[in-house]
Design a protein that fits this description.
The chain is α+β, with helices and mostly antiparallel strands and 478 residues long. The protein is 46% helix and 17% strand. The strands form 2 sheets. A 6-stranded mixed sheet has the order 1-2-6-3-5-4, sandwiched between helices.
């Protein structure tokens, strides 16, 4: 098709040359000799990063959108908690919107609604974020509200008790989401004995113990200028955002009155958790090996490998023509109801693996096929498969940046992890540089003959013994 388009384009150019030779000849030659770059085909604004005197960072990407997303990303999360205050970061996310010393909850909700502003937040194991999507003209007000929320929270005893009830109810509801339960168990067994194994929600006992003192201590310890990034995307000027940061966050302290938080060490342990419940209709199984940290050079090759395995759900209706060999097998033999491969990276470690939902009688066959596909990635992956996976990986990445909120989240996350945001051109070049050998080498390094972590929930009697699963992490070759 590309060659056909080129011939048609050349024919049109020749016709136009007869009418107006000079400009069209120059244009035709430029098209013929210079391949299109991202700057030729896309509007890719620069992500600018500025560091204030107190080491508070401002990062933004300006576009012509009439809306903008601004938010604060904090280098903290459940990884920085202990057994006594586990869940305090998630608790803080809820209570932050209950009011400040300047605004009551009603005032905050009324003001945001009158501006058409959407306030949101999320917390993970190593990051927290509070952000607002608004009209471009309301960015100053959005930044002022965000600064008020994270600096002037009151955390009254009445609000603490109210939020405690909300969080305990949320924890009960979360127990019905078996996907989240299985992945929480996976972290718990893979990083047992370390802070990364703790749940973001906390435990019932720890949530019941959380007090106003725990909240103020957590904020005073972690919400320091060097640990926070103010990110913006859309119709927001970097200069304006920097001035707003100076005004509202310039007084944030970089001195620590309490113990200076450091990144807690991790230790991956090949092990398993089996929560057998034969009353459940389906088994939920997650298996993973230790992956690289976010800044590792192996992150992209393993992400390509994960994309190559892909995901599948029996409702999609696809058959043997699927590009993923595992998905093709699942569709033909009905090995499972669904599966998805994942590659999750933290500061210094990660999890690379697969989650699937299957009937109790097909668990063993599904696990056999999963590990067989993993071994194939380590030994006999082809260039054609990798090229196709690279294209799919690019598509998935760029689709995730559809909208100012997604871009803002990407900026905040990358600046916390890397100190900068990787430009699309650089990211594209890194993906293009991945070869079949690079993927095989990365899989051999992290997957081949490694002890996996395994978590399963439901009717899992048919799941093979852990020693047998461990024995399938390598091939005996003559």
């Amino acid at each position: 098709m590309a060659s056909v388009c080129a011939r048609i384009g050349f024919g049109v150019s020749k016709v136009l040359i007869r009418r107006n030779k000079k400009p069209i000849v120059a244009l035709s030659q430029r098209w013929a000799t210079h391949p299109a770059t991202y700057h030729d085909t896309l509007s890719v604004p620069e992500t600018k990063v500025t560091t204030l005197k107190n080491l508070f960072r401002v990062a933004s990407e300006e576009t012509t959108d009439s809306t903008a997303t601004v938010g604060v990303w904090v280098d903290t999360g459940s990884r920085y908690e202990n057994d006594k205050n586990n869940g305090v970061a998630h608790f803080l996310e809820h209570i932050t919107y209950k009011g400040t010393s300047k605004r009551s909850q009603l005032d905050l909700e009324t003001e945001a609604e009158n501006l058409g502003m959407h306030l949101n937040s999320h917390v993970s194991r190593d990051q927290m974020a509070f952000y607002a999507k608004c009209h471009s003209k309301d960015v100053p007000k959005a930044v002022e509200i965000l600064a008020d929320l994270i600096q002037n929270g009151t955390y009254s005893e009445a609000d603490v008790e109210k939020v405690r009830t909300e969080v305990l109810r949320e924890m009960q509801e979360a127990e019905t989401n078996l996907t989240d339960v299985a992945l929480d168990y996976l972290h718990a067994t893979a990083y047992q004995g370390t802070s990364l194994g703790r749940s973001v929600l906390g435990t019932t006992e720890s949530v019941k113990r959380i007090s106003r003192k725990d909240l103020t201590l957590f904020v005073g310890t972690h919400f320091k200028a060097p640990r926070i990034v103010l990110a913006g995307a859309g119709g927001v000027s970097h200069r304006q955002l920097t001035e707003l940061a100076e005004k509202h966050f310039g007084s944030l302290s970089l001195n620590y009155e309490h113990e200076i938080p450091v990144l807690p060490p991790t230790r991956f342990t090949g092990s398993e958790i089996r929560a057998r419940d034969d009353d459940l209709p389906l088994a939920h199984v997650a298996i993973a090996v230790q992956g690289p940290g976010y800044a590792s050079v192996d992150t992209i090759p393993l992400a390509v490998a994960s994309t190559l395995i892909g995901s599948w759900d029996r409702t999609v209706g696809a058959g043997a023509s699927l590009s993923s060999k595992l998905a093709s097998a699942c569709s033909q033999v009905e090995l499972c109801h669904s599966f998805r491969s994942f590659s999750k990276s933290y500061h210094d470690t990660g999890l690379w693996g697969l989650y699937f939902v299957a009937d109790r009688l097909t668990i063993e066959d599904m696990m056999f096929n999963v590990q067989g596909e993993w071994m194939r990635l380590c030994t006999s992956l082809t260039d054609f498969e990798v090229e196709r996976a690279k294209n799919q990986y690019k598509t998935d990445l760029y689709n995730q940046l559809d909208g100012t909120t997604q871009i803002c989240d990407d900026i905040g996350r990358q600046v916390l992890y890397l100190g900068r945001r990787i430009p699309l051109e650089e990211l594209d070049a890194r993906i293009d540089a991945v070869t079949a050998k690079a993927v095989r080498d990365a899989c051999y390094k992290y997957v081949y003959d490694k002890c996996p972590a395994l978590a399963s929930v439901g009717p899992v009697e048919g799941l093979p013994d852990y020693n047998r699963i461990r024995g399938s992490m390598y091939w005996l070759r003559l």
